[in-house]
Fold this sequence. Notes:
This protein is α+β, with helices and mostly antiparallel strands. It has three domains: 2-67; 93-152, no CATH class; 156-230, no CATH class. It is 47% helix and 13% strand. The protein contains nine helices and six strands, in the order αββαααββαααββαα. The protein has helices at residues 2-9, 27-70, 73-79, 113-116, 141-149, 151-154, 163-166, 192-200, 202-219, and strands at 12-13, 17-18, 124-131, 134-138, 175-182, 185-189. A two-stranded antiparallel sheet has the order 1-2. A two-stranded antiparallel sheet has the order 3-4. The protein has a two-stranded antiparallel ribbon with strand order 5-6. A hairpin with a 3-residue loop joins β1 (12-13) and β2 (17-18). It is elongated, with a radius of gyration of 39 Å. It starts with a helix and ends in an 11-residue tail after the last helix. Residues 5-22, 65-93 and 219-230 have low confidence and may be disordered.
Amino acid sequence: MREEIWNKQNSTVHGDVDLHSMNNFSSPQFGLQARKLYHRLLRTQWISLVAGLSAAIAVPSILNAGSLFLNPSKIGKDKGIVVLAEQSVRPAPNARLNVDRNDVILKGYDPVAYFTRHQAVKGKPAIQTRFGGAIYYFASVANKVAFTRNPSKYLPQYGGFCAYHLTKGELKDSDPTAFLIYKGKLYVCSAADSAKEFRSNIDQNIRKADDYWVPASRTQGQPYNRFGPQ
């Protein structure tokens, strides 16, 4: 009885090939059943091999695609394609504006006060406005109103960089207290000596500074405004 139960439980492989009953087959029948079993096992192993290879190929491809998505600049490096992509959440500071990490220009000095009070006056963070990618502070609400009505009248030339060093083709930080107003335009320099040098031959220096400033602005798609003498 025990042998009969064992034979019943182990008599079938892959559904329809009875191995135990092969003892009762003639040689041709046994050979036919054996070939069926062999081909079924071979087909199963082949399918498993193909599935394994597909998975092995797909996983690195997906991971590599994900890395390119996270680092688009890698595409340009590997494929020789120019890729313009942000590398961080916060955009890089505007290279054409002399601003601090908070986008404040003129180190917080009031641009209007240069014209109304003829001196450098510190603005108040509570009274501010954003224009052209920079934040401007003002000493009074009236100055802010005047600026918003006609911003181009009060903007520092050359993005707030030192006007004198720009005549040499250099973008240098400025000291907002070293300034001069010429033909209705505000120029700031890096120091009092730089402002003096810039003023000594101002028309020629403005032309030199313009020549360095304009090509860079054109290549970045910015409008050309010659702020020097007309």
